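Hi R.,

Here's the chain you asked about this morning:
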Amino acid sequence: MASDGKRKKRGRKSKTQTTLDPTTSTINDEVFSVNNVEIVNSTTPTSAKKHENRCGRPKKRPKHSPEKPEKPPPLINGEIGVAPPVEGVTRVVPAMDAVVKVFCVHTEPNLSLPWQRKRQYSSSSSGFVIGGRRVLTNAHSVEHYTQVKLKKRGSDTKYLATVLAIGTECDIALLTVNDDEFWEGVSPVEFGELPSLQDAVTVVGYPIGGDTISVTSGVVSRIEILSYAHGSTELLGLQIDAAINSGNSGGPAFNDKGECVGIAFQSLKHEDAENIGYVIPTPVIKHFIQDYEKNGAYTGFPFLGIEWQKMENPDMRVAMGMKSDQKGVRIRRIDPTAPESEVLQPSDIILSFDGVDIANDGTVPFRHGERIGFSYLISQKYTGDNAMIKVLRNSKTLEFDIKLSTHRRLIPPHVKGKPPSYYIIAGFVFTTVSVPYLRSEYGKEYEFEAPVKLLDKLLHSMPQSPDEQIVVVSQVLVADINIGYEDIVNTQVVAFNGKPVKNLKSLANMVENFDDEFLKFDLEYDQVLSLSLSLSLSHTHTHTHTHTQRVFGSIVVLRTKTAKEATVDILTTHGIPSAISDDLKP
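And the predicted structure, written out as tokens:
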């Protein structure tokens, strides 16, 4: 008997039920490699069982022969075929030969020094083949492209690709390959319907961490209007819990039937979030493809040029003359350049769009048990389409047939691959403001670092004319002619010689054609810049080399023959050196 008075009980152990976590792999989990479909059983080693300490009677061994190992699924054209049925559902593993790797060489413009480009760099991403000898990928995968090449799975050849269209807002790009060899043995991907919540999805692509194809799986977690980071717009999107890493961009997301239900394009990186990825759904993809097929080019998604507020407060609804059975949203402001500004007015209550009633919170019925923002209805239209809008104005119901168009912002969120516009006179570098320009000047935290005046225009200002731009003095290239102006940086130009500056082209034209004694630029904060015509070219430091031209001691242009490299000429305006981008030349 033990000294502590406790008896050691002997006999059989109590039977306990084991519960498997659905998020963990099962005991007979099988891993298939991409190349040779090698099966690796993750079973517990038998050596561990020999040293297990057993008490009581040993378990009876079955008299029948042990179970034979499960045979792997059959191979069909080198691909894993139909998986074994689970609860009556047959899951088809998609044909991954249609997924390609995209190699791109980028040459971004230097927005801070707009007369030159940055050093080129390379990237890799994913894409997939669709009908019509075309390939889909993400727009940010080929942004500012110089060269794009595609490589098929299992191939060692890279094929030169041609970019047919880039949809910046929806972050989709359309490519093709002229070489017939590329299309041999490749079947295009078929598109499926918009999935439901908890539907299984499989993301296929070429992310970081290896060179071969990668497959991750998850379920649809959310379906709503999402913010597209690259396009700075809001469109329908899917949230999934499958891992989407760098390099997965442009890869397809398949459902259980092997149909493509979306394109992986971004993920949420946050310390409080894990495995949150986003997929461009098929309605957005089909809109992009049909837009290209209809117009021969990408024209964009239409938007209503309005700002609206919710009408959830009952007193607010009574004050606006709404009846108890009426719902809608109130128009705060209207873009003066939008077509709807001719018929809609501030304080109008939008009751319905194309016959679909809008709730007080701005949502419309989507599917059973789901609601979505009414901007989804607008995004289903095409540029130039008409829409019927019912509004409440002064307690009267009115209907208007409005022609939809793309929305233009005063400070554009992207440059769409175009080189920046600029104008240089007497060392003053004038350019236009865009979100990429702010990011170039102030980094990723430009929303906190940029001048308040520019941020206010970015968030709240609307253009008063279709060609209005925010023109700023980007920097001052130091010279004798501009002594005392060296500290002026990113300050808006309001007027030139008393005339308002509408855009950069109008400023360049006024400077080229002025006949006063002084060049006078009116800046914000009541600053003034004045230059005398008596200071001619001889008063400035100008030095010319065979391949390099210098103005005011700063390199303005390095002449090269690189693809897409703009050629800049040093001009003389009223005896003062100047330079102008190609798009502003008469």
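Residues 282-295 form the longest helix (14 residues).

Let me know if you need anything else.
M.
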